[in-house]
Specification:
Elements lengths: L3 E2 L4 E2 L17 E2 L24 E8 L11 E3 L3 E7 L7 E4 L3 E3 L5 E5 L5 E9 L3 E10 L3 E2 L3 E4 L12 E10 L8 E5 L5 E5 L23 E3 L5 E8 L11 E13 L6 E12 L5 E5 L2 E5 L5 E3 L1
Parallel strand pairs: 5-11
Antiparallel strand pairs: 1-4, 2-3, 2-4, 4-6, 6-9, 7-10, 8-9, 10-11, 12-14, 13-14, 14-18, 15-17, 15-19, 16-19, 19-20, 20-21, 21-22, 22-23
């Protein structure tokens, strides 16, 4: 189910000279290659040789269920991949990650965890007799988001005659053909900019700067979902919009960052802007992600 044969196969028949006492020795040959056996046994009058061979296939299985293709060698940063042989190989097989990590480092199977940066990651498999096989992975980083969709035009459940507006959007991390289940995202908290008129009126807002004039719902890390989706809510509630109303606006310039796991290095993904505006009637518009929602104090909502 979802497993994929990467190599043409391996052959592990009895091989060249060995001092093993159990009578079993191994060698690695390309698939279909003939092996000539020339046994020499000292101090024994009679002996038999019974060569056998086993075709081995190296399988990969990307652990994430989304995307549904498990037999991938292009993977996301921090993504986990199970590597194994079918049938099992002797337990002295070892696994070495030249980038990222593997656990365990010996045995018939291992779990590869991709590194936290875009790179070509190679896994070195060492079989009995120091025979090796290299498996390549292309590790990619988050590159942005799919076009956002407005999924709720009033997530704050505002009602008339309140002034305010909100919307919820959803999108997915790009590229979508890998998993970013181990990626965390964060919005950087900054002070508002381009503050004008109503929002700059200190007769209305007694705190200076007002609470909402800093991006309060930012500055913490959240894990990306198992299906790579990411949601965001944008809004300003009535508690931040006392009357009398007049025209005015302000903006948040919002850098978005990503990292792998709790201790990964912080990387910049993108920056975009959220804009909030009001008119003299208390009609409020919020804009971000290429969408906007306008709401009147009567509760009429228009989505753009």
């Amino acid at each position: 189910m979802g497993q994929h044969e990467i190599s043409d196969g391996f052959v592990l028949p009895p091989g060249p000279q060995s001092s093993r006492t159990d009578g079993v020795i191994y060698t690695l040959l390309p698939y279909g290659e003939a092996l000539g056996v020339s046994p020499r046994v000292t101090s024994i009058a009679y002996y038999t040789v019974a060569p056998t061979d086993t075709n081995l296939s190296l399988y990969i299985y990307c652990m994430a269920d989304n995307p549904p293709t498990h037999n991938r060698t292009t993977i996301g940063v921090g993504e986990q991949v199970q590597l194994s042989f079918r049938p099992n190989v002797p337990t002295n097989t070892t696994w070495t990650a030249l980038k990222g990590s593997v656990s365990p480092t010996s045995g018939a199977a291992t779990l590869f965890t991709a590194p936290s940066n875009a790179v070509r990651a190679m896994i070195l498999v060492t079989l009995p007799g120091n025979k090796t096989k290299v498996l390549d992975f292309n590790v990619v980083e988050p590159m942005g988001f799919t076009p956002p969709l407005v999924t709720n035009s009033n997530p704050l459940a505002l009602s008339a005659p309140e002034a305010g507006a909100s919307m919820a959007v959803t999108m997915s991390l790009l590229p979508t053909h890998v998993s970013f289940a181990n990626v965390q995202l964060s919005e950087v908290s900054n002070n508002a900019v381009n503050i004008s008129n109503y929002f700059a009126n200190t007769n209305i807002f007694t705190t200076n700067p007002a609470y909402f004039l800093r991006h309060q719902t930012a500055g913490f890390w959240i894990e990306d979902s198992l299906d790579n989706s990411y949601g965001d809510a944008v809004g300003i509630p009535p508690t931040n919009l006392p009357s009398p109303w007049s025209s005015g606006s302000f903006q948040y310039v919002i850098p978005i960052q990503w990292k792998v796991g709790d201790n990964g290095a912080t990387n910049n993904l993108m920056t975009n802007t959220a804009t909030f505006s009001i008119d003299g009637n208390g009609t409020v518009t919020v804009e971000r992600w290429g969408h906007s929602v306008t709401r009147t104090t009567n509760g009429d909502i228009t989505t753009h």
